[in-house]
């Protein structure tokens, strides 16, 4: 059940006028979209649908006046680089990227094609833009969070499971965002009284034995940081946390809907709908350098009560009072 609306963006798409009737060029415009996810993933489909709906509300109809070329790398670096090159070679008017992984690959390939990113942690720290207010290059978009949010995941883990003294942290060291998130969690671990076990997100063959070995000792918990590989291995990680009764905190609601315990993060589908607004503005002549990066003004806290019951946890009233959605 939802207790309140949980996300809006500064100057977001809702504030932009619907311009379906505005004059447009007869030329078919071309838009690329690069994501590290799996194409058949339900959430990935929902984000693409939100993006296309946003474009249509602004007068851009796929197949009539805009063509959208999709690429899905499944979290693989070599594939992402190849697909970024493919999209740029198509000479698109603008490319939308999902996550820091895809954005980094695109910006390695082009410094001229406009890029609108979504779900990117700390785009300034990652070197994608000069500043949030004045991006300065060929990229702009919607940030996922600042790295400081990562410390909240550890705080929430201790709050809902005070007995946790050890935590396995799944992270991707191949991306700047992975390093930044883990650094914040590591900095918060000492004061929280939690020993960390970092595990690199590479493939299922490494994730499963690492979690299995960690779970042999008591008082353990799990934190999953944000990356394309986190999404690719979502079902496996949620299943292993349940199997070994590890209280787990995730960065996105989707994990909780899939059976995970708790998540704290922004609404990513909403970011894709908002990204359509920036694509529209670029197609009409504006430059990414002049469009400020937008940050979430609210994050949603989601809890799965069924998962909590299976773990034998009673969610503290202090946490329930802050919850945006309870999945029962």
Helix-and-strand structural type = alpha/beta
Residues in β-strands, percent: 15-25%
> Which fold does the CATH topology of the largest domain refer to?
Rossmann fold
Annotated CATH homologous superfamily of the largest domain: Response regulator
- How are the strands of the biggest sheet laid out side by side? 7-6-8-9-10-11-12
Summarize the main sheet: 7 strands, mixed
Task: Return the average pLDDT rounded to an integer.
Answer: 90
Provide the CATH architecture of the largest domain: 3-Layer(aba) Sandwich
Terminal Cα separation, in Å?
Answer: 8 Å
Query: How many DSSP H or I helices?
Result: 12
- What's the number of extended β-strand segments? 12
Topology pattern, helix = H, strand = E = EHEHEHEEHEHEHEHHEHEHEHHE
Contiguous uncertain segments of 5+ residues: 1-24
Output the CATH class name of the largest domain. Answer: Alpha Beta
Q: Globular, elongated, flat, extended or rod-shaped: what is the shape?
A: elongated
Structural Rg: 20 Å
Helix content range of the residues, please?
25-40%
How many domain regions? 2
Give a structural overview:
It is a single chain. By secondary structure, the chain is an alpha/beta fold. It has two domains: 13-144 and 268-290, Rossmann fold; 147-265 and 300-327, Rossmann fold (3-Layer(aba) Sandwich), CATH 3.40.50. Helix content is 38%, strand content 19%. The protein contains twelve helices and twelve strands. The chain has helices at 42-57, 77-89, 99-109, 150-160, 176-192, 204-214, 228-232, 234-243, 253-257, 268-283, 305-310, 317-320; strands at 29-35, 66-72, 94-98, 115-120, 139-143, 166-171, 195-200, 220-224, 248-250, 262-265, 300-304, 325-327. The strands form two sheets. It has a seven-stranded mixed sheet, with helices on both faces. Strands 2-1-3-4-5 form a five-stranded parallel sheet, with helices on both faces. It is elongated and about 65 Å long.
